[in-house]
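Blinded run. Sample ID left blank on purpose so nobody reads anything into the name before looking at the predicted structure. Input follows.
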Amino acid sequence: MRRLRSIFLLFLIFCLISSCVVSDASSKIPASFHSSDIVKNVPYRYNLRVNPDNTARMLRETREAKGQRIGVGDKAVIALRFDDWQNTFRAQVFPELKKRELPASMALISEFQNIHWGAQCTWSDIIHWNRGGLEIWSHGTDHRDYKDFNRLVENIVGSKKEIESHDIKVQGFILPGVTKYYNQRPYGLLVRPEDYSEIPGRLIQQTYALSEAYAWGSIRQLPSTRYHGANHLTISDGWVQYDEIIRSIDEVIQDKTGLELMIHCGNLGLPGNLSLEDFLKVLDYLQAKRSDGILEILTPSGLMFADHSEHRLRLLDLDLTLPYSAKPSFTPDRFQNDGSQLAASLRLSGDGTSQLKLEMDRLIRKKADGESYEALVQTAGSTGKLTLRIHDGRGNLLSKTTTSDLEDNGQKRLVFIIPPGCDKITLTITAESAQPMDLLWTKVQKI
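Blinded prediction complete.
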């Protein structure tokens, strides 16, 4: 009897020790994550078996925010992406993008202020760029290899929460290039589609509808059905020079496909790399091809939903040649039209005293808040200065452009992003010219 008690006591002790070992093992995640890792060792709150219903829901919501698809007709598509280097971006690049009204994206680490390339910038800078047409993608927290599973979660999940806490919509996740320190395969590398089956890839898929890495080629067929792992062409780091970049753009235009150009601003002008002068020539070339009507410049998230249809989500599509009775919400004190030169148009006086204000509302219901748009105004071959402004429902200025050089055959455009939770915006058009300025139409459409 005493022997049986001893055996039973030993059995209880064994069970207790086993329980502690299992509990301890479940709280410690290996520093290196491969597809062979035991999923049961992952804390219960992170279900790393990708839920098809969840990924389908995120993709459906993202598609709805893009208007289902972004039709570009018979055109090719280029998207611009800038990784890191916020200091240089503020000083040398963002003003050039606004000069040409080119939309783009930034791969942003949430701790950018702790890194030398972003220490001179603030969240106010990021918000200003975002409102001016720069969509934001998470790039992790610190651009370093992660020590354990908790840091992996912080990089993928926590970075998104931190960025969005500053009233910015995060469009997706862009794989950061990190030096191997703790892991042989940081983030699973994501150089092949099957790499997304590893733990980091699964965590990305359950957190974001879109991600970019190296799993596919850089050329995008339109329409694209690859929402995770899309690649790009890096043009700033010495891999290609100006002539090769132009050839790549021309090939995309000829084939009517899509391509994302990625730039590290801080690498422009370094020995062997693309110079800042040549980079600005690339921007001019893109602007010229857009003016020729053979190229669309979309955001990187917009590129993922582009096709060759004519379908395009528009918050505003107004023919200003219609009779006044057909123009909604117009009041006489906002414009002048004496009909002396071009009766079939809306005429703004050139002294800056008259302006056209157009309101767009119910944006949250349309899932337009947090998204990128461009306002387009077509003039009747007018000369002079035209100013476009976008304000939110509280009267805060989101984006502005003024030009005395009307481009795109008399068109003027303004790119901007509607803040999350914003339900109404106003487009204001003002002219300053020697003669009254005639407007033919205006649109606000998805990019």
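Unblinding after everyone has recorded impressions. The chain has two domains: 52-307, 314-446.
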